[in-house]
Amino acid sequence: MNRQDHIVRGFKATLVSRAIYMVSSALLMLVLARFLLDPDGYGALYWAIGVLAVIQLVADLGLGKSAARYFSEYRERDPGQIPHLIRTTLALKIALLSIVTTALLAFHEHLAAALGDPGAAPFLAAGALYIVAFSFSTTSQIALQGFNRLGYSAAIQAISGAGRLVFAVAFVVLGTGALGALFGYVVGYSISAAVGLTILYLEYYARYEPAETYEPGLARRLAEYSVPLTATRSANVIDKRIDVVLVGVFLTPAAVAFYQLGKQITDFALAPAEALGFTISPNFGEQKATGQLESARRIYETSLTNVLLLYVPAAVGLVIVADPFVTMVFGADYAGAVPVLQVLAGFIVLQAITNLTSDSLDYLGRARSRAVAKGATSVANFGLNLALIPTFGVVGAAAATVATHSVYVAVNLYIVHSELSLRLERLGRTVARVCGITGVMAVAVSLVTPLISNVVMLFVAIALGAATWGVLAVTTGMIDAQQVRSVIS
To answer: Which CDD domains match (predicted)?
Structure first.
């Protein structure tokens, strides 16, 4: 199987599994928000998850991605080192988890009080289990990505999504409220972690004959490479979670619900870009190691073109239909999420590019450069949130995210260009064509938006926009219909 066929096959498997994960996440979001929890309960749940995500940083560091990088390298160079690498990774992770969860159980009440919400203490106590389950689930998923077993890796995420949906809804229906939903998350992640660790053991730890000696310095390099990855991951959490925490500190649980709902909708929209980035990124490490940078450039440019073609029109369409979409699907109680979603539409385009680029830079060995950029923009994001949330509320938090992420994306693209020598003039022409398609599509959707009076008309408007986009993309040559048919088949 050639590299392109391998990428297409991996993308299909990843996209299907991500679709399962995102559909289950969307159903969970819809059922909890519309039927089972009021805005205060919904906000309390996701505020606690935001706090736990920050704590999770210490429990995970960058070990998962660092291990994936060395799995990718040594499965070709010296497979006998793989069992040693797996043992080192798990030993370090267990040690970190033990320290973090013990501290959380001992001080959860003090932490809740310090954050201004003593009622969150039970959520933080339960968070010790959440951190362990989530950590092993994501670590096994990332490790399998490093082995380029994308089908397995994506399946773990699909299992976690389906498990969260089933158990979170079941526990809330049994009368346990938002805390029960958190335990549903724990069960879902625990099941996926068990599956992932079993695959790692059977396929790689037990399958490879360990080398007689552990390569000198390899364990140290594994730990050292996790440092810039930890910085990058910390910055990612600041971008994705700390704003939720700050909204809860400065505003109300209902405000957290509005902001979180807007972010969850953007996450759902980003599933294809995340799947594509997850699929192509291991290939960059392999191609750099073999000097095939021209091939790496073609893959990246083609992927970037497809991402822009999909997400620029999608973001503009979301701005136009955000009001009827939120109020009709989730209810009038969540109307406060409409302006958040409209501002975050810009973030969708930026994050789509990031999903395509960030992991690729790690495999190209530029994790340190990306970490510096991410750290700087995340500190700026934190400062902007502190300045804007008290004055502009949840819209200020969304604006801070878009502003700082714009800078981060620009730096990422510069780093990729320095590695792969992107054809900028060609990409510029691509952007111009995408904007033209977007303009025509926006006119079509705007004409029917005033006619939207129910959910059926809402989806008619969305379908009209999608049809206009598809026709223009094919007729302008942005999409090759024959290639689309070959990918689908």
So the answer is: MATE_Wzx_like
Residue-wise burial string across 98-116, b where 16 or more C-beta atoms lie within 10 A, e elsewhere: eebbeebeeebeebbeebe
List Cα–Cα distances, 428 to 52, 74, 382, 431, in angstroms.
Answer: 41, 38, 32, 5
Does residue 225 lie within any of the structural domains?
yes
CA distances from 189 to 152, 175, 183, 231 (A): 15, 21, 10, 24
Query: Of 224, 242, 260, which marks where a domain is finished?
Result: 242
Calculate the CA dihedral of residues 91, 97, 100, 106 and round it to 10 degrees.
-120
Whether the CB-CB separation of 164 and 184 falls below 8 Å is answered with yes
Read off φ and ψ for residue 285, nearest 5 degrees.
-65, -45
Residues written for the chain: 489
**Boundary-marking domain end, from 198, 222, 242:** 242
Domain membership of residue 247 (yes or no) is no
Domain identity same for 233 and 316: no
CA–CA separation, 356 vs 359, rounded Å?
7
Burial state string for 280-295 with b = 16 or more CB within 10 A and e = fewer than 16: bbbbbbbbbeeebeeb
238 and 288 share one domain? no
In single-letter form, the type of residue at position 433 comes to R
Cα-Cα-Cα-Cα torsion 56, 58, 350, 268, nearest 10 degrees, comes to: -10
Residue 348 shares a structural domain with residue 482: yes
State phi, psi for 394 to the nearest 5 degrees. -65, -30
- Per-residue b/e over 310-326, b at no fewer than 16 CB within 10 Å? bbbbbbbbbbbbbbbbb
Ranges in the chain, pLDDT < 70: 1-15, 232, 235, 238-239, 275-292, 359, 362-363, 367, 477-489
For residues 331 and 257, give the distance between their C-alpha atoms in angstroms, rounded to a whole number.
13
Same domain, 349 and 452: yes
CA angle 245, 246, 249 (to 5 degrees): 90
Domain containing 72 equals: 3-242
Residue 336: partners with Cβ closer than 8 Å, 6 or more residues away: 254, 255, 258, 394
Whether residue 168 sits in one domain with residue 275: no
Residue 48: predicted pLDDT = 93
109 lies in the same domain as 167: yes
Q: Are residues 210 and 308 in the same domain?
A: no
Same-domain status, 184 and 271: no
CA distance 76 to 80: 10
| Alpha-carbon span 305 to 356, nearest angstrom | 11
Listed in sequence order, the residues at least 6 apart from 77 whose beta carbon sits closer than 8 Å to its beta carbon are: none
> In the chain, what is the straight-line distance between the N-terminal and C-terminal CA atoms, in Å?
16
| The total number of structural domains that make up the chain | 2
CB 280 within 8 A of CB 64: no
